[in-house]
Amino acid sequence: MSLSHDQIRRIARLARIAIRPEESEAALERLNRVLGLIDEMRAVDTSGIEPMAHPLEAHLPGGQRLRPDQVVEPGQPQIYQSVAPAVEDGLYLVPKVVE
């Protein structure tokens, strides 16, 4: 598929992008390259290939490797809660907002 200068102007107007006449040729070439790439991708035979739920699925069995969930810095709740308006038993107290 290839676009014309008229189609480029129409697309620019619909996208509310100001393209000057001297920029039209460069925009035409870039968009035609993108459309060419899409045509190449469509031409690839993907029959028999199962869709992936996640792109990392193909490289890592079971999904993405995650670091161990462990504390690496000590907590400082006394410092954080010292500026809170109301605290009880280590919990922040907030006004009731739902009846």
Structural class category = mainly alpha
Taking strands numbered 1, 2, ... along the chain, how are they ordered across the largest sheet?
Answer: 1-2
**Secondary structure tally, helices:** 3
Q: What fraction, in percent, of the residue positions are helical? A: 25-40%
- Helices and strands, in N-to-C order? HHHEE
Rg of Cα set = 28 Å
Strand content is under 5%
Which regions are unreliable across 5 or more consecutive residues at pLDDT < 50? none
> Outline, from the CA principal axes?
elongated
Largest sheet: 2 strands, antiparallel
Distance between the termini: 61 Å
Q: What is the count of β-strands?
A: 2
**Average pLDDT for all residues:** 86
Q: Secondary structure elements and their pairing?
A:
Layout: H1 5-14, H2 21-43, H3 77-81, E1 87-88, E2 91-92
Antiparallel strand pairs: 1-2
